[in-house]
Here is the input.
Amino acid sequence: MADHESLYEPVHEEAQRRTLRVLFASAIFARAGFTLMFAVAVLLIEDMLGSSRWAGLSTVAITVGTVISASLLSSYMNRHGRRPGLTLGYVLAFGGGIVATVGAQVSSIVLFLTGLVLVGVGAGATNLARYAAADLAAPEAKGKAISLIVFASTVGAVGGPTIVGFADDVGREAGLAENVGPNVACALLLAVAGVVVVVWLRPDPLVLIDGLQDEGSLRRRDRGSLVTSVALMWSHPMARLALVALVIAQAVMIGVMAMTPLHMRAHDHDVSVIGLVISAHTAGMFAFAPVAGWASDRFGRVPAITFGGAVLVLATVVTALAGEAPKVLMFPGLYLLGLGWSFAMVAGSALLTESMPASERVSVQGAADLLAGAVSGVAALGSGLVLDMAGFHILSMIGTLASGGLLVASFAKGRSLSFGT
Here is the structure.
């Protein structure tokens, strides 16, 4: 198979522009659905179980779906292309939104969590879409391409939580229970995202660069493919740093964000204020992604990751000080949490993509997302326990320690590159 870096041609430029437009549009609708559901999921879990201790199960369920899809959808894309893989992810997520709606309405924790797992499959598809954006990108523009798809989520991610109240009102007028209406809205938005991909993502970027693998080669790789992919990443110093950045940034962001609604409700903030704080957080995650992409392309992947680690440290220090959940700290703390994640995610994704040979790229991307999802799932589950037993400030301090580890690792790598070692 030809290596795209050595064969980038002008003929790909128009296809790349079309790919970015389609992925941009689908990401808006998908991210709106995910954040809309996230804003109420922990509240529904707490209402069903009567305690906040296991409220992190909602995030865990979504993360499980994301982890599953990272491996399965990347393998499916390897054989069939990006468009079929993304479409499959959104179809399953739409079904999950419906199942979650039924589960929430009848107060069935099993049904609700099952639905969230399927919704998580759609989240995994959206994560893989950022790599699809880089398939046809010139080597010097991969960071920009990835960041544009992350940025595309801004409209949906910021807008989704702001319509929680409206969706809930419509749902209650239709006879649904409190906080169930946003689940219906989530399902509809995911359906639109799937339609956009299946109708307009042509030509398929992975097919155009001859990036598909034949069945025989995939069967030979199936046994231990995850272990093989992780070992391959770990054997390349730059890919190893990229993997560390993706895992730590995702885990810290999920761990703190997942418990923010419960922490704020415990201090008498209503759902509209909680939604606005989540909107500020998602604005930090997505609105400045083009800046992260530009910085990554202009100054290098490692400096961008270092900056992301430093911002995550600052963010978790601010949230650690927000013991009584004052808005003056919750808004900037959650915003900075999203901003640090954005730089680490964009730069880490670009670094991972360019560090791997083309024949291994899709499998390695899926493996990296699987590990990031698995660790963040543990963080989500543990965050509920930490919040219940020790408090939001201790949860934030744990995030500070993890972010500090990323900062030290990336700074050290940057120093070694500067001295040519």
User: Anything to note?
Assistant: The radius of gyration is 20 Å.
